[in-house]
Amino acid sequence: MEITVVGAGPAGLLTSHYLNKAGYNVEIIEEHKSVGKPVSCSGLIGRDFFEHFKEFDFKDSIKNRIDGAKIFCGNESFELNRKSVSFVVDRSLFDQSLSRELEVSFGERFQSFDRNKEMISIKTNMRRFNTDLLIGSDGPSSRIRTQEFDYKLRYYKGYQVRIKADLNLDNFVQVYLEKPFFTWIIPEGDGIYRMGTVSDNPKESIRKFIFEKSIKGEVIEVQAGVIPVGRGDVYKDRIFLLGDAACQVKPLSGGGVYYGALASEFLAKSIISGNYIDYPLMCKKLLGKEISRGLFMRKIYENLNENELQNIFDFLRSKKQILDESGSFDQHAKTIFSLIKDPKVIKFAPILLNAYIRSL
Ligand SMILES: Cc1cc2nc3c(=O)[nH]c(=O)nc-3n(C[C@H](O)[C@H](O)[C@H](O)COP(=O)(O)OP(=O)(O)OC[C@H]3O[C@@H](n4cnc5c(N)ncnc54)[C@H](O)[C@@H]3O)c2cc1C
């Protein structure tokens, strides 16, 4: 059986690795000239990822360990502490760790496909060929998704600078609540910080942030990309969508490496078992709830006014101890829903309801 994987990002590489190991013939097509470049990612990956995907050696890509975060809302802040909650990676080296032993056809851009009962015919900028299964792990602006699937999604623009500065944040991330997401400062190590945000004009938002915070430093790299937030089907008649192409991202933070990686495992298992329908079922069972609750909370978050946001922030600050002990880096919706059990939350019902109504 011939399997074609479009996109050599972490999702496509992981699924190719498992299929290759199981003896399948996998053809990976990548439009860029190498794996991992250009980078459009802050490279913050939770500990659960590394515990789950132990068989890979990520040593070379890990730049720093993160032990918590300082969360800001206006002029107020509080700290969350959790040793080794996440790691800062060099995304380019990280992706390369996943590509060992895989062959990739570089500089080849997927253009379209035709499907009949026997085969799927692929057209790229270089050639036409046939395949039995097609995996679209072609990132946020997936062509395969556009050609075959109907998605309800929104793109968010992200922009980040790597800057050499004297900030002394060591192993703590700073998060400034700014709708629609937040602004971040991530210490990469060696006096280098990743500062980024998501907005309609994130380049300008970061320039303003750096100016307002009087941050002095030398910008050594800029990175930009889009985050797809939404949902839709992940399988139709021998065609699979995976990773960012399938919006397998955490709706509240936009992080997608872990969810895409888990989905890559589900996909490889379902292809190996021959039960292709297991893939959408596993995605729904194991990621669906977190993503749909996250989408719901995103709607509310985006529609809070300043006062309402400050009230929610104060409540979260009062729950610092619970968040320190049981907050999850990768399951935001589960964490927030667990706080909702507190009877005090009832006073936020009108705020949440109003924000939800405004979102309609
Ligand atoms: C500013 C920003 C910060 C982020 N920070 C984090 C973070 O800290 N942690 C986290 O977990 N996630 C983060 N993300 C999200 C993360 O980068 C993605 O979720 C992740 O890269 C998705 O992996 P993927 O393999 O699905 O897609 P991608 O990594 O996008 O890989 C897709 C690949 O497909 C290739 N491709 C696309 N179209 C074609 C085509 N037609 N033909 C051939 N090849 C094609 C691309 O070149 C690319 O190599 C961030 C995103 C942004 C924009």
Automatic annotation (TrEMBL):
Q: Which InterPro entries match?
A: FAD-bd, FAD/NAD-bd_sf, Geranylgeranyl_reductase
The record's section on Pfam families has: FAD_binding_3
Q: Which UniProt keywords are listed? A: Oxidoreductase
Mention one GO molecular function. oxidoreductase activity
Asked if the record carries the keyword tRNA-binding, the reply is no
All residue ranges annotated as the FAD-binding domain in the record:
2-165
How would you classify this enzyme at the top EC level?
oxidoreductase
Gene3D superfamilies in the cross-refs: FAD/NAD(P)-binding domain
- Where in this chain does the entry annotate a coiled-coil region? none
Protein EC: 1.3.7.11
- Protein name from the UniProt record: Digeranylgeranylglycerophospholipid reductase
